Amino acid sequence: MEVRFLVQGSAPEPYQISVSLSPLMISCTCPAGMNNTICKHRRAILAGEETGIVDGDRKRLREIARAAEGAGWPALDAELGEAKARLLAAEKGYDLTARALRDAHYRIAEGDLKTERLEEKARDKMGAALETATRVYLEYQRIEAKAKRILVAGSY
């Protein structure tokens, strides 16, 4: 049996969330949801939160939260959040290293030959930062794919 909610998001018209409990599947008509992303609206419903609900059977939220817990969603959502934080940190590290390399290039172009050594170090760091960012991104993709298999496709 499907449970439907209308939730108010950033658009003038509310988004529609549909939840099937057996197997657990959830969809949302928000832009992120339409791109097959696990959006904040889905997360709120799966957590049993009433945030933003403008229509729907709120009494079923507890049942949905229990089904999500049974599917392992809370732990998976926490793992996804941690992976996203690591990804953002890796991206920031890469960006800072790229900026240092660019700055070294400018200084070399201006005739500061001492910076050539800094450029070498920055290149090495940039390679390591890119490796880290790629590894963390692939890890995030793996966790997100697992979450989507459970929540979007309804398979375990």
Overview of the molecule:
With 156 residues, the protein is of the alpha+beta class. It has two domains: 2-70, no CATH class; 73-151. It is built from five helices and four strands. It has helices at 31-34, 40-46, 61-70, 73-109, 115-151; strands spanning 2-7, 15-21, 24-28, 53-56. It is elongated, with a radius of gyration of 22 Å.
Keywords:
alpha+beta
General form:
elongated
Residue-averaged pLDDT, rounded?
86
**What is the CA-CA span between the terminal residues?**
19 Å
Tally of individual domains: 2
Q: In a nutshell, what does this entry contain?
A:
This protein has helices spanning 31-34, 40-46, 61-70, 73-109, 115-151, and strands at residues 2-7, 15-21, 24-28, 53-56. The chain is of the alpha+beta class. The protein folds into two domains: 2-70, no CATH class; 73-151.
What does the secondary structure layout of this molecule look like, with pairings?
Layout: E1 2-7, E2 15-21, E3 24-28, H1 31-34, H2 40-46, E4 53-56, H3 61-70, H4 73-109, H5 115-151
Antiparallel strand pairs: 1-2, 1-4, 2-3
Helix pairs in contact: 4-5
